[in-house]
Amino acid sequence: MSYGGRGYGGGGGFGGPKPVETGKEYDVQIVEIARQGDGIARVQGFIIFVKGARVGEKIKIRVTNVGARFATAEKVAGGSASQPELKTDPKQVAPSVSEQEKPVLQDYKSEEGEQPPTG
Questions:
Q1: Reduced to 3 states, what is the DSSP secondary structure of residue 14?
Q2: What Å distances lie between residue 56 and 23, 53, 85, 94, CA to CA?
Q3: At CB < 8 A and 24+ separation, what contacts does 96-99 make?
Q4: Per-residue confidence at 67, pLDDT binned at 50, 70, 90?
């Protein structure tokens, strides 16, 4: 079945030429995570899914496949791009609480005619 010039498949109709090529390497930053867990980078607005990447990483990738609407890529081992340092602010770390110090949670039991508190 022919889709006659609608730009589907690998033949270049959707939005013109792609800003990335299969087999080439690019330095990118991962800006979000896809539903399947892959990292998402963009090169000139073109979406690239990067397996195993995390948000905030600045990495070198190798494009493995270029489709009509997006590309897929893999991290390049030993790439020149560096990953951001993750630092933990000691003020934001929750103190550990022993079992004895934890509050006991109770269910509200209403008596006849009594209404549970609101707000």
A1: coil
A2: 24, 9, 10, 23
A3: none
A4: very high
CA distance 41 to 5: 28
All structural domains of the chain: 25-75 (2.40.50.140)
CB neighbourhood size of 88 (10 A): 7
**Is 90 exceeded by the pLDDT of residue 117?**
no
Which residues on adjacent β-strands are paired with residue 46? 43
46 and 68 Cβ atoms separated by less than 8 Å: no
Q: What are the DSSP calls for 64-107, one per residue?
A: EEE-SSEEEEEEPTT-SS-PPPP---GGGSPPP--TTTSPPP--
**What pLDDT does 100 receive?**
61
